[in-house]
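CHAIN AND CONFORMATION:
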Amino acid sequence: MAKEKAPKKGKGNSSFDAMTLVGWIAGIILVIFGIVWNGLPSTEEEKADPEYKVVDFGASKSFVDVPSISITVGGTIAALMIAFPASAFGQIGKHMKIALMPTKYDSQTYIAQITEFAKEARMKGLLSLEDKLAESKDEFLRSSLMLVVDSVEPEKVHNLLQAELEHLDDRHAQARAFYDKGGGFAPGFGMIGTLIGLVKMLKDMNDPSTIGPAMAVALLTTLYGSLMANMFFSPISNKLRVRHEEEYLCKVLICEGVEAIQAGENPKFIEEKLQMLVIKNEKKAKKGKKGKNAPAEEEE
């Protein structure tokens, strides 16, 4: 007996996520604004000073320190090299594309397609699906239904589909782990750089005038680490999680729908069943967001 092939990954249409790009640009602009903005003159001395600048781009020089950058950026990369294989770094470009140009996964579109396949199978039989499958752009949906068309046993179909879901979940979790760790390493090396700067400053306390500038340089590593964590690693990790949840839900709908079609269930019942899965997923997501506030609400 030939070995059944696992369903292939689905590929949908991609769309540009303008909000992600706008968010990055806005974050960078706001940071730069905070650096160069001195504020409107508030005292008489400031108003009378012809050299007073409301926006001073020269102040940005104070926020650039090569040793601090080396410690924070270099240290974070070195720690990630220790923690992850080289292939993880090769996936960064792919993940940037997922963040900016994600594949569309619309649950209602999948429910409509599965319902149509269920109607076709009920009226003309499972073998009639083979020709109709060409209308679907999702490769995972096509290959999953082909298992049914090829008369693979229901238990084997279930096991293959569940294995694909588990593989998808594990693979995406590993991808997010890279950015989660980076979001932890960056502030950590920022603090290491600050401690190094403070030690060097405390060793040379003879000239009080050097304490302020030395302290500023020491704190720059903390700034760099926080920027890396909050402008790159954490946002990308969260964006990948959102993309995963969208894709995973549609894959679950496909698995449930394919098994229901193989069992010969009523198309209307299949549609309602899948809609309930979507509603349940939405409630679970809302519950997760409100979880932290739940104790306070109960006390009220």
In short: Residues 65-283 form one domain. The chain has two domains: 18-39+55-64, 65-283.
